[in-house]
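Re: weekly structure request thread

Next one in the queue (750 aa):
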Amino acid sequence: YRGDYIINWCPRCRTALSDLEVEYQERDGRLWHIRYPLASGNGEVVVATTRPETMLGDTAVAVHPDDQRYARLVGQRVILPLVDREIPVIADGYVDQAFGTGLVKVTPAHDPKDFECGLRHDLPQVKVIADDGRMNENAGRYRGLDRFACRDQVVKDLQQLGLLTKVEEHRHAVGQCYRCQTVVEPTLSRQWFVRMQPLAEPAIRAVETGRIRIIPSQWGRTYYEWMRNIRDWCVSRQIWWGHRIPAWYCDPCGEVIVSRTVPTACPRCGKGDLRQETDVLDTWFSSALWPYSTLGWPEQTQALRVYYPTACLVTGFDILFFWVARMIMLGLRFMGEVPFREVVIHGLIRDEQGEKMSKTRGNVIDPLHVIQGATLEELLAGARAGGAPPAALESIRRQYPEGFPAFGADALRFTLAALASQGSDVKLSVKRIEGYRFFCNKIWNAYRFVATHLCEEESGEVVVGDLALTLPDRWILSRLTEVIQEVTGALRAYRFNDAASILYQFLWHEYCDWYLEIVKNRLAAAEDEETARAGRVLLVRVLEQSLRLLHPIMPFITEEIWQRLPHKGESIMLAPWPQANAALHWPDAVETMGVLMEITREVRNIRSNYNIPPGKRLPLTLRTSSPDHDAALEHCQEYLASLARLSRLTWGRDVARPNLSATAVVRGIEVHVPLEDLIDPHEERERLTRELAKVDQALDRVTRKLQNEEFVGKAPPAVVSREKATRAELQDARAKLREGLERIEAHLKH
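Done, posted below.
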């Protein structure tokens, strides 16, 4: 329908904006208290406003009907300052009694709430700001002034007349154009609208009944909130590009014709002198037609029958209402069916401090620079081309003094997947991308090792049941089975970060760090050809299936390696998705290897803490507390001795604790590494004392910095967070050093 209504107008773009196209920003402003003399001459009222320039278009002063302070004024008239026009005092429930003085000016042509109030009270609509943001002829002597210059002049004139009683600092939200950030002007205009309530109700029911599922679910609540409070949509735009509104005007008789086809004559007067509306439809209206307009609609094409509705829409939360809700509403209206079954909402990519990326800040990361690499000059050239100011260029110089190397598409894709937790924005940093490039290198190096042990006779189908499986073999197959289930479940639930994390942990910290090293030792020993063959086969099989799981996130390196491995089919993209096999899952192997790996880690930590050379073999004593522990150690003692580089392994429930030992606890098993023959206790005491002094000094420095209110108040939040994390690390290090020093002191006393 076409009607006069308060719309959001951008004076710079010279076009109407929908409510969603207005971005609100908190700003420091002022609240001016202005005297309006009573027409009777018996006093005055004081009205508070943030926009004194619009008072020139006031047509009433309003009070709340329950506000006893002003009940006597209702029905009286006041003189509008600077204009000398009489306007009434009215009572209306929209007035906030707690705001300002409890009296508000009513400007129906420049405020949506005032417009509604004006309709209720049949008030005149006086528009005083033109489409270019300047005051029009209704503004009298202020005509031609920019609206903000007019504000200053109005305030100055009110002061000279003694009509300004008070000015308060006032923080409030100011609407800006999403394109150019110009302050939006609510203004009365004749525009085309879509009545939304009849469209919103079926769209709400579609989500309520499960025909559409919004993921994560909290965005469903946001969807309902907006849809249940929806306003009519202003769809006309005063721009050159877009679908022209299908409306024609008959100038001789004033008839307005809306038609699906181009009319040749006016149905009212019969004349053919018709003029089409020059406004175009809001781009988001055209976008809302996308799911079916791209498939040949309104014709009933084969493509439309096959592809509408689609299964899933993945999109950012910032266009949930701009696009998603409108696609649902118009899809139900024109197609009688929802456009998609699931909507997956993801966050936005921000910089590592969580700030929005913008050219003016200089924190935009160009994906092509990340993939291909860029020198500092290339980064600066790209920023200059985008109009970045000098401060932004300086920020780039400070952050990337050497530019950055080529990280590749796979590293960037994996970073985005790993950081894309549901409902959260992505805090992107070049350091994180670099870390995942190392992951790509790790996978490639694993392949290189596997490739050196590929055998022709083992490149075909090998039945796992025919292999001589060892404990590590059963463990890696069990873990692969679990990982297939976990990754498949994560992807089905759209938890891309979980899928990435599971694959990263499995490939780097289990397949490469543990299984590959165990098989490497097995192949080097060359003692048992049957177990060696099992190792060679499983190295390939586990890597190949892992590549298929990883392929959706890292398509390039996975395809490259897969083509070099024994495989079936033309491409990994067409290979079947791995299926979990319950017959290849041994829970006892997972438990036993878990014990083995944790004990090995603790022994390695002890080596590091006591500066024991990696090549020196150590005695190890394990005090167990259950028969299960003993059984597990019986099965893994050979691997434990090899991986932890042990000279002797003793375990049992009654074994004696060594006098001087480094100790840890793993799943109820006491881990003791005797130190008597490994370190000089006096030298160790001196070393620990020196280390403790260094840590105390560093901790004191960080603590003093965090106790400095000026530093905490002025430093960026990310810097303060880093200092707090450093303090926590130093406190933990100090506690461990003190514990070690106490053990040495106790030994020396004996």
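The chain has a mean pLDDT of 90. The first helix runs from residue 112 to 121.
Next request, please.
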